[in-house]
Amino acid sequence: MNLLFATHLLDWGGGEKWMLSAAESMRARGHSVTLCAPGNSAILRRAREASLPTLSVDFRRDFDPVSFFRILRFCRTHRVDLLCLNMDRVLRIAGLAARLAGVPAVLPRRGSEFPLKGHLNYRFQYQWVATGMIVNSQATERALCRGISWRPRGRVHVLYNGLDLGPYTSARPRGSVREELGLDPADFVLINVGELTSRKNAALLVRVLPSLRRGFPQVKLLLVGEGPERRALTDQIHELGLEDSVQLLGFRRDTPDLLAASDLLVHTATVEGFGFVVAEAMASGLPTVVSNASSLPEVIDDGHTGTLFSSGDAEDLERALRLYITNPDLCRRHGEAGRERVASHFRLEDRMDELETIFRLESDRSTAPTPTSDRG
């Protein structure tokens, strides 16, 4: 198959991570793959580093004639079989261009628990432009049609994210990473990884630290990520006198090493798409404390690989944290069970097998002749 992947987002996040991984996996399986994104985007830079064929398209506005005709020409010239995209803007521009160019299948992938909007252009996009859809959880699927009276065209495929387990079984030694971070061997290290935004809600975790540290002064926190809430978090850490206990590490590309140096992943999001880092933590053998928002209850096995807490509830979060700080054996058991769960549910090769099957099914379905009725 000739496959085109497209996004307009500049920054690196879970959706971009999935798309690049999917593109590389499909290329490894012998498909012709091109990744389309703005020239200054993080995903295009990484695609080029991976020697993937790329197409630079800006997607500047909701309707961008230059980008539209660039995609239209590419799809016709390269006889694209399927376009996989994220974000509604890309569907409006690239999806429509692909359909007019005769591309058999246009599959948007939705990775967040946000419903479709009810106005007419959304209905056009999802009932004529899109030929099907991929969602990353049952929660995302349930949210799609909340509050609208129509259904998207085609089949909605639930496809969980997949994870390459290799980097998490070959991380750098725990002790050397801790030494670089100025952490003592006896510290109990919490780690929170994600964009510093209000919906990731890292402020909730910072808020419970003073009470937690009164009983357990060995607790330290690593905040990994960048975003608009960084200044507010810095101020909060200062106001609570936590400068010696919390490290704002910014965006990092060595997440497996940081997870290996930690004792417990804490994921406080109030809205989530899949929670990729939760699977990453389980692959690293960490127990997890995770809010019960969106798809997160589908990722962990509550009480077996980690513990769910009521989203936004500081007391419930602190209760869950104390459970692990006081019980090393529970940490070990839940960490081991997490590794097993990732290997059985979220292994990259298994999920890419499923994605390839979806691509073939959608491409074949869209090119199949429409049966005619024989009325005699």
Mind explaining what this structure looks like?
This protein has 376 residues and is of the alpha/beta class. Helices cover 45% and strands 16% of the residues. The chain is built from 16 helices and 13 strands. The strands form two sheets. It has a seven-stranded parallel sheet with strand order 3-2-1-4-5-6-7. A six-stranded parallel sheet has the order 10-9-8-11-12-13, with helices on both faces. Helix 2 (42-49) links the parallel strand 2 (32-37) and strand 3. The longest helix has 20 residues, at 348-367. The chain is elongated and about 65 Å long.
CATH superfamily of the largest domain: Glycogen Phosphorylase B
Q: Secondary-structure element order, as H and E?
A: EHEHEHEHEHEHEHHEHEHEHEHEHEHHH
Q: Helix content range of the residues, please?
A: 40-55%
Beta-strand content: 15-25%
- The CATH topology annotation of the largest domain reads as Rossmann fold
Give the strand line-up of the largest sheet.
3-2-1-4-5-6-7
Specify the biggest β-sheet: 7 strands, parallel
- Secondary structure class reads alpha/beta
The overall average pLDDT, rounded, is 92
How far is the N terminus from the C terminus?
39 Å
The CATH architecture of the largest domain can be given as 3-Layer(aba) Sandwich
Q: Which outline best applies?
A: elongated
- Radius of gyration, in angstroms, nearest whole number: 22 Å
| Domain tally | 2
What is the number of strand segments?
13
- The CATH class of the largest domain turns out to be Alpha Beta
